[in-house]
Write a structure and sequence with these properties.
The protein has 19 helices and 21 strands. It is globular and about 115 Å long. Belongs to the alkaline phosphatase family.
Length: 633
Amino acid sequence: MNLLKLSMITTAILGLSGCMLEGDDGQQGPAGSAGSDGLNSLTVQSDLPKGDNNCPNSGVKLQSGIDGNGNGSLEEDEVTDTSYVCAPGVSGLSASELLTSVNNDWFSQASSQIQLNKQNWLDATGSRESQVTTEKLTNQQNLQKTLTSLKGKAKNVILFVGDGMGISTVTAARILEGQLQGKAGEEHALSFDQFPFAGLAKTYNTDAQTPDSAGTMTAMMSGVKTDVGVIGVDEDIARGDCSSAAGNELVTALELAEIAGKSTGVISTARITHATPAATYAKSADRNWEDISDMPAEAVDGGCKDIAEQLIHFENNLKARFDGIDIDGIEVTMGGGRRHFLPKDMAFNSPDAVSAVEGDRTDNRNLTAEWQSLYPQGRYVYDKTGFDGIDTETTERVLALFNESHMQYEADRGNDIAGEPSLSEMTEKAIKILDNNNKGYFLMIESGRIDHAHHAGNAYNALTDTIELAKAVRVADELSNDEDTLIIVTADHGHVFTIAGYPKRGNPILGKVVNIGQDSPAMAADDLPYTTLGYTNGLGYRNLGAETDADQGYAYPVDAGRKDLTDIDTTTPGYHQEALIPLSSETHSGEDVGIYAKGPGAHLVNGTNEQNVIYHILDLTADLNGQASNALK
């Protein structure tokens, strides 16, 4: 078969419709090839519609052959040649069509974004536009040259971790924040949505398809993936075996920054001894060893130290590992978890203690007092009043423990007895203290309670804490300079949290699904309404109304499965979404999570990455390893 992909030959040919051509001029032709029998050669033309396999944009099918039976028409078995004349595809727009596009808001916004993206790349690579495709990264030599030029370009590094902040959480929080501002919501952008570079991280641990925070944060802080439940050590250990940790300790980005002479800080709305913040400074064969009372006797006898003690004596521990270093310890520590630093004796209770005996330590040590003894010029604070009184220009260092356990959810913060600062307020205070060091700083900021709200099955608090994280990112961005500060926003893992159904644009993200063109909730196959947000597993339905503490959901038995939500306001803070599979707590997910970046080296964040690559981006752009090595010489 002859397939001719030609442009339109003439409008006359395309204008013919299913006529029979006899010879080249439409008249009866000379005798056919058989000659003696007087048979005619015939050519038949038929129009082809758009979408035809041979001519996608329409055209003409031409068939020729010998009229063997002399009936004046060409049968299928008489066809000896088939060809096509195809209409060309649309390769341009008419003036009117073009104006229709360029005057469209979506078109113009996307066009502007492309220009911004291009400029971001040019700025990041230091290229002229003509160089981007012809000179940059075309071979190994140019690649190495580019990476070398990035080394040490970031004076400061800020790493934000939204614990449990999977892609669906970011999307839902974006919509909620937009709706709280009176928008439809979907078109809104969180602060870090607007960062110029983004990619994905694969979150699995070395022994687990679905990860935990200890293994994932260790990967981000050390550049080495490891097992579930262990902190600051590689996979060549046995969880819970103190003796197996020796020799398998990893060096973290925060430790390298300390050795390099930078100021350092750790902030979390969770307990400061919890897995994510602990992975910046501790080495532990079990993430649960937050204080000595959590440790088995053999681990204590084996010389392993609890995580709270490792934080307080971080400076001395690091000096013991690296001879001859000159460091001054972590300058800013803010979070919850006071109970792990105080003796199990009510005499040491803080004014806002919730438990009859606040402290958990069974070794009778008051680690807050030990810290104050080590750093007489430092400020230990436990409430909002003490926090507000910190002078960022004169304060050398801060240890702030605002709660017996985790800090409050952002939505519940007003109910704290002694008052707590928000994540954005802690971020601002920390940066203003740390930037007093002309060598720069390393700061890790965790929004830890996104994770806890998801575990409790309460989307309201998870999204509200995500919005507060975005506010903290905006504060950090405003207080820093893109020329010398790398900011990365990411998550350790996601959750089994979904956005589903077919709700119309602007439908309340916490509400029930209302379909396009409708005003009443859509009904599922069981004739019951359902919400846009839900969980695959967990505690299930609770209707706690105005309750802003998601953890109150644990006071009720598991109640998974479908419920009649007809008369339930699902947008209240205390509503807990339905769950399919009954569990005592909702679980993490194994999906990839987002990485968002701006500042020096931000363009290295792209594509899908192993999670430990984040450390290597931090290390390269701040030259943490190089500067630390020079300090050790």
